Amino acid sequence: MPSPIDIHIGKRLRLRRQLLGISQEKLGEQLGITFQQVQKYEKGINRISASRLFQIAHLVKVELDFFFEDIEPIEVQNETTGKFDAISISEYIDVGTLNLIKNYSCINCSEVQKNILNLVASLAKQKTLS
Q1: What's the CA gap between 108 and 110, in Å, rounded?
Q2: pTM reported for the whole predicted model
Q3: What average pLDDT does range 67-83 have in this prediction?
């Protein structure tokens, strides 16, 4: 079952692609994928990875936050209570997070990326311990 966020991002991709008059075939060629894959992205059936979303944003000439505008609140499980709380995507993914994704996706060395992920995980763990 597609995630509501994946569906929203796909709709935003379709909207922007159509506004620019780019066919699914043309976008697929530019991304090195089939038009069927673009269709799946637009329907939210297949998730778009962070690096692919960055590439798409560049091709359709928008900032990454374009894909997250006007997103409906989502349900996120509260780690403390176990209950589900509705939060907006702006609470979940802020400008700092988008910048982190943008800069991370520019790193071409998988070893460096792995080290960054380990560092972030370590820092997050320290936060929960304090």
Answers
A1: 6
A2: 0.59
A3: 68
